[in-house]
Fold these 4 entries.
Entry 1:
Amino acid sequence: MWAAATAAGGVGELPIIKHIVMWDVLGRSAEERAGNIDRIRTAFEGMRGKIPGLTHLEIGVDTSRIDYACDVVLYTEFSSQDACEIYASHPEHLRVRAEIEGLRIARHQVDYAVG
């Protein structure tokens, strides 16, 4: 279990864990890719309120159109490292992973603690 040290050297509150995932999405045409992006967005938005410790969830779609930008980003916050680890194997998350399987061509992830 994570614990953050306070300035006095004691144990403080658990840090918030930020979990960020970015994908390049499959699609032979702009329409196909847009449809796949919408499927990913809908799948993740369906997790809201269903996973303990998942305190914030955003799905963003790239508007820059820069050739090296990812298409979709998932930004989530968890109440603790334990909550983030539970999320990884939670049935609702596994359902979403199965739904979006095959819709991505690349995936990038960063998890970090704040606090």
Entry 2:
Amino acid sequence: MAVALVMIGCSSPDARIAVGQTPSPTPSPTETPGPELRFAAIGDFGSGWPVQREVAQSMCKWRERRPFDVVVTTGDNIYPNGAPRYFQEKFFDPYDCLLSDGVQFHASLGNHDYLTRRGRPEINEAAFGMSKRNYVLRRDGVRFVVADSNRLDREWLSDATRARPLDRWTIVVFHFPVFSPGTIRGSTPGYRPDLPRLFARRGVDLVLNGHDHLYAVTKPMRRIRYVVTGGGGGGLYPCGDAWFSARCSSRYHFLYVVASPTELRVKAVGTDGVFHRFSTTGR
């Protein structure tokens, strides 16, 4: 099973997609049930505003009773751009309660991060947890495929989403959304139908994106759920109607995800508690 995270930014990404033809989905290996992985996800958060700190404090309070030690991001980690002079105020200070307790961030690059040397300062800063601009992270049966969607490398993405032994789930993470009902940004031109077809062939289970400053989740799309998590601290955007949408809410939030051997359980947690949840058995 595979999970996809998608990052969303404020500028249009390169829309060209080169996808090879594969006759059938790549099955995820069947393994003996193992431990659960619990992680959080946030996006579009590095504003330095009080609400960013409120969301961060909600994460720390949540973690007191529901532990997690990994946070993945869907980009726009720093506003207005990814210059190092903003790191302390807009990253290290708000999330000190997590970082000082050993929680590891693994970020993707949004369009604002990209404005400074194509995101190089954040890639070079170990606290953002990016070994490269495109990378794979494997933890406790979960394969995180984290991509730079400012210039999406479709060839790399096609290979990186192939499940390896011991990968029970594949989650794809990047900034620009594949499906979004938001009225400000919306779905990214040029991503459909090619990316959903690729993800279905590869057996991806979940895709996490950002760029639209809201929370949204699709209906099962060939058994894949596409989530926009862009309510981490930037100004919120309104929701619209869309045929693919299961839920949309213009609220500040983070995601809490439990990857068990049999399902992915996702909760959208606002500053006043859980406001939406869903589960998926993926591909």
Entry 3:
Amino acid sequence: MRRRIGIDVGGTNTDAVLLEEDAVSAAVKTPTTSDVTTGITRALAALVEQAPAARDAHAAMIGTTHFTNAVVQRRDLGRVAAVRIGLPSGASLPPFVDWPEDLADLVRAEVVMLEGGHEFDGRPPVPFDTRGMRAAARRIRDAGIRSVAIAAVFSPLNASGEEEAAAILQEECPDVAVTLSHRLGRIGLLERENAALLNACLIELARTTTRAFTQALRASGIAAPPSSPSATKPSSSTWAARRPTSAACATAFPARPTTWSRSAGSARSSACPISSRWAWAAGAWSERRGRSPSGRPAWAIA
């Protein structure tokens, strides 16, 4: 019999369920704790007490609003260096240009704009400024910045600029977390860059949350590998720790009709506490079609 454990960590309560095949065989609810780990451990302990077969689960999945809450409540966000590769064009609307001012002030550590990028056919209009990138990497290291988001013009067509910038960063400051925009978004620069920036500021929180989940599983005697459900299939906790935007936006923006207001510049939905540019930027929603950039409905929580 196939058994799976599901954990939902909310702002108030943590729920744990055991599924045997497609049926829920046990369910518990405990208060969420500030350190995350304790609340998950208590929920799992209660689940195992109610259903000892939970120890033999084949998989354990976690869903959480921690990342969405972090953005909405302006807490637990990391400082980020934004690296844009696209000069001489692309300078008129700098990184963070459409962020709420208070949120930008919390997250923005440094903005670097360099020559490079590609045309729509994949050709580079100018060579990538490797010297400028190396100088920026040293400033980032000296400033103690621990997370960097890199976005290059048309990088989904040719990612060499972003990859080269990441390699330089790893040489100069190997402990920094690097988010590459072409792995998160589509062609549009600002939307893709916002996705990378949002991901970068949530990286440390994502690592803390996934580590807490793993520790709680081990403490409960559950050997099932931790994972995070994506829109298509469960993904590893390592993947979830690298891409928290999937968790933040899929939780906040389920695939349901959303009213778009051009004048207000936001999407209004009962399940949408953040402006639609966040949903679109983080890769969970397309205002034009109401679908995820992959073409699939963005319904999963991670």
Entry 4:
Amino acid sequence: MEAVIEGEDHTLFAPLLNYLLKQKGVEYAMYDMDHPLTRRITLKIRTINRPPMDVLNEAVASMLIDIDSLKEQLMNELGGS
């Protein structure tokens, strides 16, 4: 699978790549940015016996769970709600 995403940069895709590479069935995952000023990312995922979109959805879901957990920990430490 190859997708071009406009308006994003390394901030989102560097961690997403780490989550993708942890998913079962991922043979290859990478992203490339043409130029920092264009903010155009090309994401490539190759999987074995699994649809790439399933793997991408699972990676994003896992990432969101970790973000929610981090938010909760920070709110507890900082006394927020």
